[in-house]
Amino acid sequence: MFCFQCEETASATGCTVKGTCGKPETTAVLQDLLIFAVRGLAWTAETLNDLAPGPEAATGRAAPHARLAEQAPFLREALFATITNVNWEDDRFRALITEALDRRDALAEAVRAAGGSMDAAPEAAVWRAPEATWLDTGAHVGVLATQDEDQRSLRELLLIGVKGIAAYAQHAAVLGRTDPQVDAFIREALASTCIALSREAMIELVLRAGSVAVSAMAVLDAANTDTYGHPTMTRVSTGAGDRPGILVSGHDLKDLADLLEQTAGTGIDVYTHGEMLPAHAYPSLARHRHLVGNYGGAWWQQTTEFESFHGAVLMTTNCLVPPRRANTYLSRLFTTGSVGYPGAVHIPDAPDGAAKDFSAVIERARQCPPPQALEGPDLSIGFAHNQVLSLADQVVEAVSSGAVRRFVVMAGCDGRHKARQYYTDLAAALPDDAIILTAGCAKYRYNSLDLGTIGGVPRLLDAGQCNDSYSLVKIALALKEALGVEDINDLPIAYDIAWYEQKAVAVLLALLSLGVKGIRLGPTLPAFLSPAVAETLVSTFDLKPMGTVSGDCAAIMADA
Ligand code: FS2
Ligand code: SF4
């Protein structure tokens, strides 16, 4: 196996035996084979479209071939399944591979029926092998199949960013929102990895992935806020009650909403964990009195926190990590959506977007004792774009008067490495005239610090999940307009991003596509950036590695 898609990759180069995340070699190889299969599927779909595009739309552009739209949900699902800490069930990867091959071959038939030929098709578009040999095939079609280091780096940067885009698009699709342009780009990007492209063309695709990530996040933001209302500033309890509980983690708000409906009046309390914390700020979720608080911290602490929670645990998306040998919670762990884990009960999708049936989760929770209380202060959340922009006058006044000298975007992911203590120390070290804007589970490194307020505005503004990084973009663009600044880089905003998995890569590409320069990225730069590609990002965007707390703090405040 060879996998280097996350920040915790072995020796900062690549996992080759078993993932640092716990991913076994078999799972890694099946993921590689699935990606190979969907690349071939996308190439075949693009070929069909070139041969027989749909009718010309009113825009003057041809609509995509009618068969293309039906591939989009599958491509999103397949990509999402391969994101770090999502699906650990090999059988599901085998089923996805089978479906990819069947879809691909049906499209190949359509190519032939339209007078085209598959004779010169790339290997990804034509291979088929007995399932018993898939592990052999998968071992030869992964990352290292691309020989040239820089071509491999750009290809993987694109694929990894597209995985993040697919996850955002899938979250929005669950709420009935899709964007054909986003789905078309996912297809185009996958297909592009089957052919040799110039370095310039590959860089262009990578930057376009950033623009598409902005669009995907905008669609998701609209889906979430239209469905559940705009987040408002909210204090969230981190205590524990005396009734049995269900702990909901991951990012899928619809799963939480449906579970809240089904647990109303049952005597069961519902708690959020990790990236589900922002749910408390959405009016139509917060109205449920039995949504009582947030339990625990970031994803990597779950092996301790799921244990002491005592109740049922529902993982709606990443990050699910393998329970340790001493853990006892597998019998009360439930997965749903893209997530899967051997031994955990999976709650299936309901047809046509209807509510899933969570009765098994509820029944399990009834048999459990209440959670063991954890130490921690209440948390302040709900500072997504609508809430922050409602404070725009105060914010602009604070900037104009000099009360706020710098905004520091510290969005992204948390992770296990001790080096991430940097983010706690940096948040504490920033002077009193700096405001931190955060989104994602990175916040758990500093959201229990008492950072105070400036003119009534909290010094830590939490916009929500990593999915809500779009809010930070909207806030930056609104500040640009309010302060009459020409260039986004002239704003008093510094970016110190913590990354772990592939959605954070999509967010990074989104910021680069908006022309943001001088981003600090840590705790390490991605292993999938070759020296030459890293140098391109450094010279074009002034991308910087994380430094020391004191050095970075001084540089951030001096805007260097
Ligand atoms: Fe955190 Fe994990 Fe949000 Fe990432 S819960 S690192 O996959 O999605 O951020
Ligand atoms: Fe290694 Fe990360 Fe890949 Fe897991 S997801 S195998 S830790 S690089």
Automatic annotation (TrEMBL):
Annotated [4Fe-4S] cluster binding lies at C3, C6, C15, C21
Q: What is its EC number?
A: 1.7.99.1
UniProt catalytic activity:
A + NH4(+) + H2O = hydroxylamine + AH2 + H(+)
Question: Any note on cofactor binding?
Answer: Binds 1 [4Fe-4S] cluster. Binds 1 hybrid [4Fe-2O-2S] cluster.
Q: Sorted alphabetically, which InterPro entries does this protein's record hold?
A: HCP/CODH (IPR004137), Hydroxylam_reduct (IPR010048), Prismane-like_a/b-sand (IPR016099), Prismane-like_sf (IPR011254), Prismane_a-bundle (IPR016100)
Tell me which GO cellular component terms the UniProt record holds.
Answer: cytoplasm
Report keywords, A-Z: 4Fe-4S, Cytoplasm, Iron, Iron-sulfur, Metal-binding, Oxidoreductase
Biological function = Catalyzes the reduction of hydroxylamine to form NH(3) and H(2)O.
How is this protein named in the record? Hydroxylamine reductase
Q: Which organism is it from?
A: Roseospira marina
What is this protein's gene name? Answer: hcp
